[in-house]
């Protein structure tokens, strides 16, 4: 059995999957950096339990500030994260130093942050935000020795009775970079020094922390150019299913149950029970990244889509939904100041016969999927 958990951490993200004795985590943080969130992270795993892969979508504060807690409480074997170029890395470090966000150490030297026993793997940027992923780049996780992989690489894991794949997809959003640099320049900051001089924060801008914070919260989406999606599911390229109709690669051998929405008409679940795969989106702008095109050959098995950016309407594209009934978890703070989630977005999900699930800091709001085979 597989357990997929959307943990109640509030305005942030913390998701995990348990495949027997194989554990993965996607993001770990919340905006207010609360002690309660520490407890949620610590109680998600036993002390010194192994996290086989930690996937980091991007380096926004609310998605990564509890990774330190996770790292201290568990043993993380592999970290898969977006590749940061030198200028982007220096810019983020400068801004986070100015904001007193201690996660800048994670960006500056991830190997030192996690320890020498953890394998750090970076994912290159994709050059095409619509091109479908195929099976040309498939890597068995047991043989993953490299420190850098292409966006869309299929990371395959074989269990006793089924096969599973994880597909990190890293895209570049230049519009966020342009907007951020424009705001910094208009406030009188030297953008070139921010991108190239790691001491610029200390020398010039720590005293202007309030201005930096306003810019940080003003940039649409997040200040990171990169945001890495993750497909977690069965390896169901159409041709594989056609050729191996009765093997465990075929989705019709799988079904799932849920710990939420018991009032929903069950025939809908039965009808769609084979769609056990999930797409984690982080803070991705779904208007710019066409996930139905990218994951075209896997889409028939997708039944869960994490709604990006805490239910922000501007990051959502309702065309990803059709008549197949999707579960749509949304991580959001109960008293956030951003107006998340958008009720227009909630309405669009419901109209498409799918189900929005608000995962807040309320411990009763966590969402669990159980996948049996």
Please describe the structure with a list of short key phrases separated by commas or semicolons.
17 strands; 373 residues; globular; Metallo-beta-lactamase, Chain A; single chain; Metallo-beta-lactamase domain-containing protein; nine-stranded mixed sheet; alpha/beta; Metallo-B-lactamas; RibonucZ/Hydroxyglut_hydro
What is the strand and helix layout of this fold?
Blueprint: E1 2-6, E2 12-19, E3 22-30, H1 35-42, E4 50-55, H2 61-64, H3 67-73, E5 75-82, H4 86-98, H5 104-108, H6 110-114, E6 119-123, E7 138-140, E8 148-149, E9 154-158, E10 163-172, H7 174-186, H8 191-196, H9 200-205, H10 209-218, E11 226-233, H11 238-243, E12 255-258, H12 266-271, E13 277-280, H13 291-294, E14 302-305, E15 327-331, H14 343-351, E16 355-359, E17 367-372
Account of the 3D structure:
- Pfam families: Lactamase_B (PF00753).
- By secondary structure, the chain is an alpha/beta fold.
- It has one domain (2-372): Metallo-beta-lactamase, Chain A (4-Layer Sandwich), CATH 3.60.15.10.
- The protein has helices spanning 35-42, 61-64, 67-73, 86-98, 104-108, 110-114, 174-186, 191-196, 200-205, 209-218, 238-243, 266-271, 291-294, 343-351, and strands spanning 2-6, 12-19, 22-30, 50-55, 75-82, 119-123, 138-140, 148-149, 154-158, 163-172, 226-233, 255-258, 277-280, 302-305, 327-331, 355-359, 367-372.
- The protein has a nine-stranded mixed beta sheet. Strands 7-9-10-11-13-14 form a six-stranded mixed beta sheet, with no helix packed on it. Strands 15-16 form a two-stranded parallel sheet.
- The longest helix is centred in the N-terminal third of the chain and has 13 residues, at 86-98.
- 46% of the residues are buried.
- Residues 238-254 and 258-271 have low confidence and may be disordered.
């Amino acid at each position: 059995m597989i357990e997929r958990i959307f943990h109640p951490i509030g305005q942030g993200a913390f998701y995990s999957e348990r495949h027997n004795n194989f554990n993965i985590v996607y993001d770990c943080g919340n905006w207010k950096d609360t002690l309660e969130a520490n407890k949620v992270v610590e109680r998600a795993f036993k002390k010194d339990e192994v996290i086989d892969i930690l996937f980091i979508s991007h380096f926004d504060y609310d998605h990564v500030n509890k990774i330190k807690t996770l790292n201290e409480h568990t043993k993380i074997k592999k970290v898969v994260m977006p590749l940061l170029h030198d200028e982007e890395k220096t810019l983020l470090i400068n801004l986070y130093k100015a904001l007193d966000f201690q996660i800048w150490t994670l960006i500056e030297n991830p190997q030192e942050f996690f320890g020498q026993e953890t394998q750090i793997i970076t994912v290159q940027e994709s050059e095409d935000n619509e091109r479908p992923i195929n099976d040309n780049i498939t890597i068995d996780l047991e043989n993953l020795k490299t420190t850098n992989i292409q966006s869309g690489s299929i990371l395959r894991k074989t269990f006793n009775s089924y096969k599973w794949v994880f597909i990190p997809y890293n895209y570049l959003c230049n519009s966020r970079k342009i907007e951020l640099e424009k705001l910094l320049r208009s406030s009188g900051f030297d953008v070139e020094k921010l991108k190239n001089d790691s001491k610029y924060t200390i020398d010039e801008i720590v005293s202007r922390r309030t201005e930096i914070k306003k810019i940080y919260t003003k940039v649409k989406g997040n200040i990171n150019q990169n945001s890495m999606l993750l497909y977690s599911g069965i390896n169901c390229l159409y041709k594989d299913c056609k050729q191996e109709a009765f093997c465990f690669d075929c989705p019709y051998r799988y079904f799932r149950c849920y710990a939420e929405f018991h009032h929903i008409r069950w025939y809908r679940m039965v009808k769609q029970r084979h769609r056990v795969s999930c797409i984690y989106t982080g803070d991705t702008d779904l208007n710019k990244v066409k996930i139905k095109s990218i994951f075209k050959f896997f889409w028939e098995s997708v039944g869960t889509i994490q709604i990006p950016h805490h239910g922000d309407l501007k990051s959502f594209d309702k065309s990803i939904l059709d008549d197949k009934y999707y579960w749509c978890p949304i991580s959001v703070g109960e008293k956030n100041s951003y107006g998340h989630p958008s009720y227009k977005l909630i309405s669009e999900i419901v109209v498409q016969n799918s189900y929005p699930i608000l995962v807040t800091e309320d411990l009763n709001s966590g969402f669990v999927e159980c996948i049996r085979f």
